[in-house]
Amino acid sequence: MVDLALLRSLAQPAQSKLVLLVLDGLGGLPREAGGPTELEAARTPHLDDLAAEGQAGLSQPIGLGITPGSGPGHLALFGYDPVSSNIGRGALSALGLGLRLDAGDLGVRLNFCTLDDQGIVVDRRAGRIETSVNRKLVAKLNEIEVAGIELEFATESQHRAVLIIRGAYLSPAVRETDPQAVGVPPLEPVPLTATAQHTSEVLRLVTEAVRDCIGSEAPANFVLMRGYAGLPELEDLHSLYGLQPMCLATYPMYKGLARVAGMAVLDGLESVDEQIAGLAATWDDYDYFFVHHKAPDARGEDGDFDAKAAAIEEMDRRLPALLELGPDVLVVTGDHSTPSQLHQHSWHPVPCLFWGENVLPDSVRTFGERSCGQGSLGVFPAQSIMALMLGHGGRLQKFGA
Question: Which residue of 41, 125, 143, 199 has the fewest C-beta atoms within 10 A of its own C-beta?
């Protein structure tokens, strides 16, 4: 694995334009033996053309058998070590929403959920409530008071929200309350270290207050907590490689990831068409573009095979407009796999293609899991994608004499 220090030492300026197009949760599985995956079933003539003209493989976000979260999955795509640089989702969501997160604060990612009369989780996402309902619930939660602590609840999107806790002696070393399953009660926020005892008690008081505040609501009558994190620190992409990076994402958490990596963020985007228009509008001012498409992941988590295929097709239809801008290097991949058969992220490697003038084409002719598995890149670490983009874009000097 090429480390950041070596890449930093080799980085050189160039006029090339680099585009990383992330179809969140891209990888999948067949719904019947011998059948196609969601990507293979989707009608993707433009992605197939890019695969035929470029180079393909399967990227491994973390390591063999390891299921990645969205945070480490994306950090690997940006070239960071996804393990040592891992950042809790609470901080990423808070930063993505533009909330104040100071040193010593604790960000917590929340899922509104549905509990039955026995306190058992029957829906971890409360039916993906409308964002407008989320805002009304957050307004109620912001009336909660815990002595000696400042709480700020904020809406993210649909069933997702964020809590920022401000106070002394806060620690992220607390067990998450999301059991990651239905049919069981929420977990208790027990401390994982002696220094996290105070934070554990604060979170316990918050969950009790949440139950009192919205326990009679339907379908969202409780919250599950995870992704505890303080203010992150990473060396930004400009300092590392001299890039001028821009993020075009619709969802707050991915904007937070981009901001941690030092990217400018174009806010106010709500659709794929607006993302492509934003890409065109910022094309002359930046040279690295991170374009994020959330829908495949969401539909995979819903267990909807056909809807996930349709979400992939939606981006495929926009590719001609992207290509008209003239990227020198285009990478299309995902941050992880989200098979609709599993209703969640998985450990399976992710289809990946490189396209550009300096990319040596291989024998792959279609964009799918099994075809990419035959590509010249093989199964390779997702952390290498940044180095390959820089190399294909003429942004790395020769190493050694």
Answer: 143
Sign of CA dihedral 32, 39, 251, 263: positive
Instruction: Please state at what angle helix 70-77 crosses helix 252-260, rounded to 10 degrees.
Output: 40
User: What pLDDT is stored for residue 253 in this prediction?
Assistant: 85
Mean pLDDT of the chain: 95
- Token pair of 211 as six digits: 């139950």
Residues in the chain with pLDDT < 70? 1
Q: Could you tell me which of 71, 24, 21, 22 has the C-alpha nearest to residue 308?
A: 24
pLDDT of residue 175: 97
Nearest by Cα to 164 from 105, 252, 110: 105
Q: What is the per-residue pLDDT for 290?
A: 98
Choose among 347, 258, 266: nearest CA to 25.
347
Question: Are the C-beta atoms of residues 337 and 27 closer than 8 Å to each other?
Answer: yes
* Nearest-angstrom CA–CA distance, 211 and 214: 6
- Identity of the amino acid at 144: I
The crossing angle, in degrees rounded to 10, of helices 272-282 and 305-323 is 20
Q: Three-class SS of residue 58?
A: strand
pTM exceeds 0.90, yes or no: no
Question: What structural domains and CATH numbers belong to the chain?
Answer: 4-86+235-392 (3.40.720.10), 93-229 (3.30.70)
Residue 1 has what pLDDT?
63
CB-CB contact of 51 with 370 (8 Å): no
N-term to C-term CA, the chain = 21
Q: Where are the beta strands (DSSP E) in 230-274?
A: 245-248, 264-265
The upper half-sphere exposure of residue 343, i.e. CA atoms within 13 Å in the direction of its Cβ, equals 8
Phi/psi of residue 135, each to 5°?
-60, -40
Show the tokens assigned to 312.
Answer: 């992939």
* pLDDT at residue 292, rounded to an integer: 98
